[in-house]
Amino acid sequence: NSLLKEIFQREFVQGKDSLTSVTAMNLLTNQEIPVVISAKSEFEGCLDLKIGIPCISPDDAEVAKKMGLAFAEVIETFPDGSQRLINSGKFTGMTREKALNAIIQQAKNKNIGGFLTSNKLKDWLISRQRYWGTPIPIIHCQNCGTVPVPYDDLPVQLPNTISFKEKGVSPLLSISHWVNCPCPR
Fold it and tell me: What's one GO BP annotation on this UniProt entry (predicted)?
């Protein structure tokens, strides 16, 4: 958004943490969250932004205190190392794991989130060069070229009888009725 970019450029102070006039909205609580431009030049992984959680991060707590931002402790740690949520509304008293699952479920119910994903996920080969890899539903026809397997024939099932006697050759090559299937066109 060019308006946000303009505000951030105007309110950015080189080498200093900057509290901006922009706020983010916590969609579960409808609480406004201040947006801070950090003087820190590197973040974990390949991130260029992060959410600061002062009650679990000493660095975030330092920034919040320096900026005069109020925050509540939300995790209580017991001598045995177990943790429970405090000051967390209906999640108070839950273990972190139970609270995470309850929060995810609430986000799913409100259509504002769901299970965690990783920004580190990369494209991955869906069919490996081994017989048990995911069969790609494409038929190679000499006349028609590549033809998708008809929807009614999905999912493509691998054959049950496989011989692993020959090394360096796909075991599927010995099952001619599976490899040499008719063109659906």
Answer: leucyl-tRNA aminoacylation
What's the pLDDT at 104?
Answer: 93
Residue 7 corresponds to which amino acid? I
| Amino acid sitting at position 30 | N
CA distance 104 to 110: 10
Q: Find where tokens 């060019």 sit.
A: 2
The pTM assigned to this predicted structure is: 0.56
In whole angstroms, give the CA distance from residue 95 to residue 72: 17
* Residue 117: per-residue pLDDT: 73
Which residues 6+ apart lie within 8 Å of 22 measured at CB?
A: 4, 7, 8, 35
pLDDT for 103 equals: 94
Two tokens, residue 27: 């969609």
- The answer to whether 18 and 36 have CB atoms below 8 angstroms apart is yes
Q: Which of 25, 13, 18, 46 is nearest to 119 (CA)?
A: 46
pLDDT tens digits along 47-91: 667 888 999 999 899 999 999 999 999 999 999 999 999 999 999
Residues 6 or more apart whose CB falls under 8 angstroms from that of 36 comprise 17, 18, 19, 20, 52, 63, 67
Determine if the peptide bond prior to 155 is cis (ω within 30°). yes
> Quick check: 72 and 87 in contact, CB under 8 A?
yes
Structure tokens at 13: 């102070």
